[in-house]
Target: Origin recognition complex subunit 2 winged-helix domain-containing protein
Amino acid sequence: TKTALVVLQSLTPNAQSVFRVLAEYQLANEKEEGKPVSSLYTKCRERFLVSSQVTLNSHLTEFKDHDLIKIKKHSDGQDCLHIPLVPDALGKLLQELA
Model:
């Protein structure tokens, strides 16, 4: 998680906020397979964190490149995002990022 924190701190505030939206969802919905990309996009647009899918995709690519997220196919065929950290570590990461 130290590496994740260093990477997140080097990103823009908006990118950090996008990660936080995903992390908070994951902590609140531990039984889920992940958050669908379309759902994350909608939530981030509502919060004015991204203005287009292209912007979100660039953040997601950065997260993926640094192993902050994993993308897997949901049972319904959608791409779902998952942060590969146990809930305790993820919660601690969010506290340290704040």
Q: What stands out?
A: Helices lie at 2-10, 13-28, 37-46, 53-65, 87-97.
